[in-house]
Amino acid sequence: MMQFVLPEELQMLQQNLRRYVDNEMIPYEMETMDGDELKPEYRAKFQDGMKKLGLWMMEVPEEHGGGELSLLAKSIVWQELGRTIALPSREDGITGPVIRHILFQLQGEMREKYLMPALRGEKRGCFAQTEPDAGSDPGGMRTTAVKDGDYYVINGTKRFITGAGKADFMQLMVATDRSKGSRGGISCFIVDMDSPGVSLGARYKTMMGDQPWEVILDNVRVHKSQLVGEEGKGFGLAQKWLGAGRVKHGSRALGVAERALEMGVKYSHQRVTFGKPLAERQGIQWQLTDIWMNLDIATLLVRRAASMLDDGLEARTEAYHCKYYSDEMAFQAIDRCLQIHGGIGLTTDLPIERMWRQQRSYRITEGASEVMRTVIARYVMKAFA
């Protein structure tokens, strides 16, 4: 179950991808972005690289022409790509169209209308769950869908929706019974972005560089055929990929921490103060040693969670632990790296400040650290009572 040592094929994957990142991404990482978008020439270049490495459509099931890599294998990919800022902080799309797990649940006409065009890159979707009063607490969702004959009437506002401005449709989570909250009261609909009553509101400029949207739904009428699965079972659909999402967070954090360690060690040998390289000062040595030790621990947590989920085991607590520890660890690592670099670390001439901003955001998004600890605490208080 536990992968302390990667299988030979995954070691080869990691080595090949690391060479690609080192040679084809890191040297260009300060020039690949145009605002919050990857420049077209670099998107094409990186997609071609992923195809050559056999990573194209790595998250798509084989029945749809994808590679369907194991979660452990994908964690290696996310880790290595996390070592560079050459890519957007969220949903870069270099390994293929961004397809949420929900779309693979579609059947019949819905599958032909949404999933297949998305796989071919002809349509783009976004995922709309977060609200002003329902971020880490989806049970507090205020956007409602009220049944009216063969239709549902949807009203509410979604916030911080990545990719909404270019999406053709959204995978929308709404409350069909607010009294039940996340335990049977949330449903999922596929809603076209050009539906009457759907509009884009504010666009938020974040410190990470990405600009997610507010989506307003005003008496939007959606046919019952647009419901994904059963009414009230929407949160369960989302839960199926939340564990993998937390492993992705942890994996990407490993890459950030490793890059911080690489840059910190290298600079400590170059920088001389008061007649000695920083590398000879115990205060610096211990900071870098702490990064390495914490990175080692986080690596084991990520591989444990990924291996358990690959084996079909219950790994909810392990996934929470993986996300919480790794994201906190990586922020501390890049913060120490910035401190070691001093004033030059604060400039935009180096990738450190951007990595710092991005990593700071991951302690909040897709499950704030406080929420992770709260859920883990429930396990601890029950398991050791």
Output the keywords:
Butyryl-CoA Dehydrogenase, subunit A, domain 3; Butyryl-CoA Dehydrogenase, subunit A, domain 2; alpha+beta; 9 helices; 4-stranded mixed β-sheet; 385 residues
Notes on the protein architecture:
The chain is built from nine helices and twelve strands. It has helices at residues 8-25, 40-52, 71-81, 108-119, 234-270, 282-310, 316-341, 352-362, 369-383, and strands spanning 33-34, 37-38, 125-128, 144-148, 151-161, 169-175, 186-192, 198-203, 213-223, 227-228, 272-273, 276-277. The chain folds into three domains: 8-98, Acyl-CoA dehydrogenase/oxidase, N-terminal domain (Butyryl-Coa Dehydrogenase, subunit A, domain 1, Orthogonal Bundle); 103-232, Beta Barrel (Butyryl-CoA Dehydrogenase, subunit A, domain 2), CATH 2.40.110; 237-383, Butyryl-CoA Dehydrogenase, subunit A, domain 3. The model has no long low-confidence stretch (mean pLDDT 93). 45% of the residues lie in helices and 16% in strands. The chain is an alpha+beta fold. The strands form four sheets. The protein has a four-stranded mixed beta sheet, with helices on one face. It has a four-stranded antiparallel beta sheet with strand order 4-5-9-8, with no helix packed on it. Strands 1-2 form a two-stranded antiparallel ribbon.
In terms of topology, how is this protein built?
Layout: H1 8-25, E1 33-34, E2 37-38, H2 40-52, H3 71-81, H4 108-119, E3 125-128, E4 144-148, E5 151-161, E6 169-175, E7 186-192, E8 198-203, E9 213-223, E10 227-228, H5 234-270, E11 272-273, E12 276-277, H6 282-310, H7 316-341, H8 352-362, H9 369-383
Parallel strand pairs: 3-6
Antiparallel strand pairs: 1-2, 4-5, 5-9, 6-7, 7-10, 8-9, 11-12
